[in-house]
Design goal:
- It is a single chain.
- This protein has helices at 2-13, 15-19, 38-48, 73-80; strands spanning 26-30, 51-55.
- Strands 1-2 form a two-stranded parallel sheet.
- The mean pLDDT is 82.
- The protein is globular, with a radius of gyration of 14 Å.
- β1 (26-30), α3 (38-48) and β2 (51-55) form a beta-alpha-beta unit.
- The protein is of the alpha+beta class.
- It has one domain (2-80).
- The chain contains four helices and two strands.
């Protein structure tokens, strides 16, 4: 239910308008995130015309779940690439 409301809220703001402010989107998503379903990631990726990176079995990315996210080399790689 909460995910649907988020998608609707973003839709209200306008996917096109959001895309107009950013050159490139990359979404990082886990296939078992307890807050956002994989489907939500796929819908957001499609609507934003974003690259979607799926991480198997990582849950919701945060330090409480797994300390490995203190360093997230895949995120840094995306930030630094041309």
């Amino acid at each position: 239910m909460e995910q649907t409301l988020i998608i609707q809220a973003i839709g209200f703001l306008g996917w096109k308008k959001i895309r107009g402010h950013v050159k490139e989107f990359v979404l990082f998503h886990s296939d078992n995130d307890s807050y956002m379903s994989r489907e939500h990631g796929m819908v957001s990726s499609r609507r934003l015309r974003a690259k979607l990176r799926i991480f198997p079995g990582c849950g919701h990315f945060n330090l409480e779940t797994d300390k490995k996210f203190k360093q997230f080399p895949e995120l840094l790689e995306e930030i630094l690439h041309d």
